[in-house]
Design brief:
- The chain is of the alpha/beta class.
- Helices cover about 35% and strands about 20% of the residues.
- Helix 9 packs parallel to helix 10.
C-alpha cells in the first residue's frame, strides 16, 4: 500500500508541536510494516534543509487566484528518516524560516495544497491513500473531488487526522478565488458560518476522519471551537487512534542528549545522575522532588495557572519541592514565570524558549511532569515521561485520560485531577510528594512499571493501516 502523508510539520525537518512528532514517526513505522509511506510538506528554510542532500523531482506552476506561481518539489536523497521525504517550494510564500505566524498563512498553505494536488495529478499512477493532517492540508479532500483540474484524483481514498481542532484555518469568502475552479454547486462544503473553514471542509469531504485519541474524538462533539454540531452529525465516519512515540528517538538506554543512559534495571542510578546534572544547570536542590513542565506557555496548556500554582506549592509544602519550566508562548505568562523565578530563587527555574536536548534531559532527570492542559488531543509528553520513569501529573482530559491511570485506581501509576486550577495542581503536588517521593520503595516500583508500558507506534501504525484498508 502506498500512503501519501501531507502535513505542515514533520520532525526533525520542522516542528512546532505534536503534529511534527507524529508525522515524523508514523510513516517510518508504516514502512516497517511493509508499506510505502511518504511525506510531503513545505520547504521552509530550516537547518535540516541546508544540512542534507536533495534532488529535484518535479517543477510546475499553478494559479493562486489571479496570481501565477511556480513551485518545485525536491526529495531527500538518503531516506535518512526511514521514509521518502518531499519538500514543496514556492518562492515568496514557503521560503521562510518559521512554520506559522505570518499574516499571509492562508495564502501560503492554500498555495501549498494546490501545488501538491497539481504534482499528484502528474503522476503516472495513483497512490492508495492520501492522508492529510490538520487544517493546513484540509482543503485537499475537497480539491481532488471537486476542482476540475484534479478530478481524476477523486477516486483516491482520503483520511483526515485532527491533531488540534481549535485551529481551523478560517478565511473569508473574499479569498474564495484562491481555490482552483470547482463545481460551484459544492460551495457549501467549504462554508461554515459564512467563512471558508478548511477543517470543517475536510471533515465533510474526507472518506474517514480520526483524532489522536478516542477521548478527544468524543470531546469534539461538545468542545470544538464552533464545530460541535458538525462532529455530532459526522460521528459515523469519525474514530480515535491514540498516538504512539518513536521509541528509537525516545529511549533512555541510548539517548545521546542525557547525562547518563539507563534502563529499567538501572533506573534509580540513571535518574539520580541526570537529576544532579539538571539541578546543577539550574541551581536547584537535587535532594528535593523535582516537578517540571515542558511545552507551549499558552492557555490551551493551562500555562497561565503555573505561576500561582508553583508559588502556592512551594509555600504550602514548606519549600520541599523544586520546579523547572521549559517553554515559550504568551509574553504575560513568560513574564510572570520570570518574576516567580526571581522571588523563589533556588526553588524555581525556567528556560524560556525551546531546546530539544534540554527536553530529553528533563524527562530523564525529573521526578514529576505537570500537564494541567485545558485541551489535550493526545499528548506525547506524558508518554515520554513514562518511558523515562517520570511520573505524569495530568488533568483528566483528552489523551491524558486515555494514557494515565491515577494511583488510586487499579494498576494506577500517575496522578490525575479534574480542573485546570491552582488548587488542583497544588493538591496534586502534595499527593505526589506523599504517595511517591516520601515512599522510596513504592516510587521505585512505579518507575519500573511505567517504563514497561508500551506506547510505541507499532500498534497505532497497524490501526492506521487497518483504517486505510477499510476505505476500499
Amino acid at each position: 500500500m502506498e500512503i501519501i502523508h501531507i502535513s505542515a510539520e514533520c520532525y526533525p525537518v520542522a516542528k512546532a508541536g505534536g503534529l511534527g512528532d507524529v508525522v515524523g514517526a508514523l510513516p517510518k513505522y508504516q514502512n516497517k510494516l511493509g508499506h510505502v509511506a511518504k511525506v510531503v510538506m513545505p520547504m521552509y528554510r530550516t537547518k535540516f534543509l541546508y544540512s542534507n542532500e536533495w534532488e529535484l523531482v518535479h517543477e510546475g506552476g499553478q494559479y493562486l487566484g489571479l496570481k501565477w506561481f511556480h513551485y518545485s518539489v525536491i526529495k531527500e536523497k538518503t531516506n535518512k528518516l526511514g521514509f521518502d521525504l518531499f519538500l514543496v517550494d514556492i518562492n515568496g510564500l514557503l521560503d521562510r524560516e518559521k512554520i506559522y505566524g505570518y499574516d499571509d498563512d492562508s495564502e501560503r498553505f492554500t498555495a501549498f495544497q494546490i501545488a501538491v494536488c497539481d504534482w499528484l495529478s502528474k503522476w503516472q499512477h495513483l497512490p492508495d491513500v492520501i492522508h492529510v493532517h490538520d487544517h493546513q492540508a484540509g482543503l485537499i479532500p475537497f480539491m481532488i473531488k471537486y476542482c476540475y483540474a484534479f478530478a481524476h484524483l477523486g477516486q483516491i481514498p482520503t483520511l483526515f487526522t485532527i491533531h488540534n481542532g481549535q485551529y481551523q484555518g478560517w478565511m473569508g469568502w473574499d479569498r474564495s478565488h484562491y481555490i482552483p475552479a470547482y463545481d460551484s454547486w459544492k460551495w457549501g462544503l467549504l462554508d461554515w458560518k459564512n467563512n471558508i473553514n478548511p477543517m470543517a471542509c475536510a471533515v465533510r469531504c474526507a472518506w474517514k476522519v480520526n483524532t489522536v485519541s478516542q477521548s478527544y474524538m468524543e470531546e469534539l462533539r461538545y468542545n470544538a471551537n464552533g464545530l460541535e454540531d458538525l462532529f455530532e452529525y459526522e460521528k459515523g465516519k469519525c474514530t480515535g487512534i491514540l498516538n504512539g512515540i518513536d521509541t528509537e528517538v525516545w529511549d533512555p538506554a541510548t539517548d545521546e542528549y542525557i547525562a547518563k543512559n539507563y534502563s529499567v534495571e538501572t533506573v534509580e542510578k540513571g535518574k539520580r545522575k541526570n537529576k544532579k546534572e539538571l539541578c546543577k544547570q539550574f541551581n536547584l536542590d537535587p535532594e528535593k522532588p523535582l516537578f517540571t513542565f515542558v511545552g507551549r506557555l499558552v492557555g490551551e496548556k493551562a500555562a497561565d495557572i503555573l505561576p500561582d500554582a508553583i508559588s502556592s506549592s512551594v509555600y504550602q509544602h514548606h519549600g520541599n519541592c523544586n520546579f523547572l519550566i521549559l517553554g515559550s508562548g504568551e509574553p504575560v505568562v513568560e513574564t510572570q514565570l520570570e518574576i516567580v523565578k526571581q522571588q523563589l530563587s533556588g526553588y524555581v527555574s525556567t528556560f524560556i524558549g525551546y531546546s530539544e536536548s534540554l527536553s530529553h534531559l528533563i524527562y530523564a532527570g525529573a521526578d514529576f511532569l505537570l500537564m494541567p492542559s485545558r485541551i489535550e488531543p493526545c499528548g506525547l509528553n506524558q508518554m515520554y515521561a513514562l518511558r523515562y520513569g517520570t511520573v505524569p501529573i495530568v488533568r483528566n482530559v483528552g489523551g491524558l485520560r486515555d494514557t494515565v491511570v491515577d494511583f488510586g485506581d487499579w494498576q494506577g501509576f500517575g496522578i490525575r485531577f479534574n480542573e485546570a486550577s491552582v488548587w488542583d495542581v497544588t493538591y496534586s503536588v502534595g499527593r505526589a510528594i506523599d504517595l511517591y517521593y516520601n515512599r522510596k520503595d513504592r516510587f521505585h516500583e512505579i518507575r519500573e512499571f511505567m517504563m514497561n508500558i508500551d506506547h510505541s507506534w507499532d500498534s497505532s501504525a497497524q490501526q492506521y493501516i487497518s483504517l486505510y484498508q477499510s476505505l476500499k
